[in-house]
Amino acid sequence: MRILFLLTSLAYGGAETQVVRLATRLKSRGWEVSVVSLMPPKAYVEDLEAAGIPVFSLGIRRKWPDLRPVLRLARIIRKWQPHIIHSFMVHANLLARLVRLFAPVPVLICSARSVDEGGRFREILYRLTDPLCDLTTQVSQAGLERYVHVGAVPRHKIRYIPNGVDTERFKPNLEDRLKVRKELGVDGFVWLAVGRFDPPKDYPNMLQAFARVVHKHANTVLLIAGDGPLRETIENLARELGVEKHVEFLGIRRDIPQLMNGADAYVMSSAWEGMPNVLLEASATGLPSVATDVGGNREVVLDGITGFLVPPRNPEALAEAMLRMMDLPEEKRREMGKAARKHVEDNFSLDRIVDMWEALYKELLEQKGRR
Question: In which band, very low, low, confident or very high, does the pLDDT at 64 lie, cut at 50, 70 and 90?
Answer without folding.
Answer: low
